């Protein structure tokens, strides 16, 4: 029973890690949507492009009627700004559903862990008095 409790706790920790990853993906997705919406329309505008390690470069704003969207597996497609925003909004809904599901699984698992932990504690108390 103690071994099963440890397995359940390990699974709970794995769910917590997944929840953290999905939460970061949600934040990244929202930031991307906001960045696309706030891109200046005029070609004379400057934007800052991150190079990494906190280094930015000023560039003239590109024409934003078409964007490149990485679909994964090294597949990149050219889409309109509206299509990219629709894709990102749909992805946001999927990520929100995923985090809701993970949270529900964690709650169920936490209840099961608490119940099992109480049983183990009862058995240990009985053995001590026994």
Side-by-side strand order of the widest sheet = 1-2
How many domains is the backbone divided into? Answer: 1
Report the CATH C-level class: Mainly Alpha
Main beta-sheet annotation: 2 strands, antiparallel
Instruction: Please report the number of helical segments.
Output: 2
Tell me, briefly, the overall form: elongated
Average predicted local confidence, pLDDT = 92
Q: Give the N-to-C terminal Cα separation.
A: 19 Å
Radius of gyration: 24 Å
CATH architecture: Orthogonal Bundle
Q: What's the SSE pattern?
A: HEEEEH
Helicity level: 55-70%
Layout of strands and helices, then pairs:
Elements: H1 2-37, E1 46-52, E2 55-60, E3 66-72, E4 75-80, H2 81-129
Antiparallel strand pairs: 1-2, 3-4
Overview of this structure, please?
It contains 2 helices and 4 strands; from the N terminus they run αββββα. The protein is an alpha+beta fold and 130 residues long. The protein has a single domain (2-129), classed as Helix Hairpins (Orthogonal Bundle), CATH 1.10.287.370. The strands form 2 sheets. A two-stranded antiparallel ribbon has the order 1-2. Strands 3-4 form a two-stranded antiparallel ribbon. α1 packs antiparallel against α2 (81-129). The two termini are 19 Å apart. The mean pLDDT is 92.
Looking at this protein, list some descriptive labels.
130 residues, 2 helices, alpha+beta, Helix Hairpins
């Amino acid at each position: 029973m103690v071994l099963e409790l440890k397995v359940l706790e390990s699974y709970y920790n794995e769910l917590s890690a997944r929840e953290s990853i999905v939460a970061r993906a949600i934040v990244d997705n929202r930031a991307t949507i906001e960045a696309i919406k706030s891109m200046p329309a005029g070609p004379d505008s400057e934007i800052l492009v991150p190079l990494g390690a906190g280094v930015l470069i000023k560039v003239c704003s590109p024409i934003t009627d078409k964007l490149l969207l990485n679909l994964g597996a090294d597949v990149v497609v050219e889409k309109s700004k509206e299509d990219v925003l629709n894709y990102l909004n749909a992805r946001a809904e999927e990520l929100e559903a995923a985090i809701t599901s993970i949270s529900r699984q964690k709650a169920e698992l936490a209840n099961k862990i608490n119940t099992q932990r109480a049983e183990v504690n009862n058995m240990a108390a009985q053995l001590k008095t026994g």
